[in-house]
Amino acid sequence: METDKNIKAKALAGTDPESAFDLLIEEHQRQVYSLALRLTGNQAAADDITQETFISAWKHLKGFRGDSSLKTWLLRIAANKVRSYWRWKKLRSWVGLGPRDGEEGAPALQDLLADRPEDRPEAAALAADLERRVQAAISLLPPRQREVAALRAQELSVAEIAAALGMAEGTVKAHWFEARKKLEASLGEYL
Amino acid sequence: MKDDEKEKKLISLLAVRRPEAFWQRQRNAITGAAAQSRGSSRAWLLAPAAAAAAVLVVFLARLPGPAPAPETQIVSTAFLEHLDLLDDMDVLEAVPENEL
Predict the structure, then answer these.
(1) Chain A within 8 Å of B4 (Cβ-Cβ)?
(2) What is the model's pTM?
(3) CATH number of domain containing A129
(4) How high is the mean pLDDT of chain A?
(5) A88 and A7 fall within a common domain
(6) Quick check: B22 contacting A, CB < 8 Å?
(7) DSSP symbol at A108
(8) Which of A135-144, A161-170, B34-43 is least confident?
(9) A82, A106, A130 — which closes off a domain?
(10) Are residues A178 and A136 in the same domain?
């Protein structure tokens, strides 16, 4: 929360907007990208959504009232962009257009390689397999449960998820309960 | 296994893991795209100024030109140094097109 205040203060003061923007990305990039990836199941789309989320947020930062944290605000923008992505996908298939060229769901192998060279390539193969299984399990969930599960995976509290998705806390709890049951059934061997 | 522990394990399983190089690459891509979008928004801001400049140029072009200035006798050193290049140009211009 302190960092959020710093980012906004720096951005509004206009003294060092570049470093404030870098800080905003560094602080929240992992959560925004993870949410986009888990909700689309598509690496390229997740990259685009992450980029658009930060650019939109930056443009509208002055309008951010600070009622919620910067994190939940960003995740809300990202979730809205994911919804637009699905609407766009539906529209494309409705008019008979297939997926765009270069639209690939699976991540590139180099993106799964561990930071330490001695952990490669066995770790990459295992990570790729696990990634596929987890993504498949999440993709089987109904949209609302998927959103709640993807946000819970970012270690957001029920209250934060409710703020990010504009839902009541009770609804979030019910969706998470259902999603958890299904995920535990699909991924039982890893638990 | 306790329910809380099981939930923690599930949450950890659902997390997306990428090496640091991936995040760095993505950060660069985002800042690059943001700079581009800022550039294009500034281009829109410059559009009225560009239009006013174009009108001014047209207006000035319609005005009667000033009296021709007397030929200056000053020959700069740079001009003398580039006479060789001009020479080459003369040669090139003199060669018929089909021989070039």
Answers:
(1) no
(2) 0.71
(3) 1.10.10.10
(4) 85
(5) yes
(6) yes
(7) P
(8) B34-43
(9) A106
(10) yes
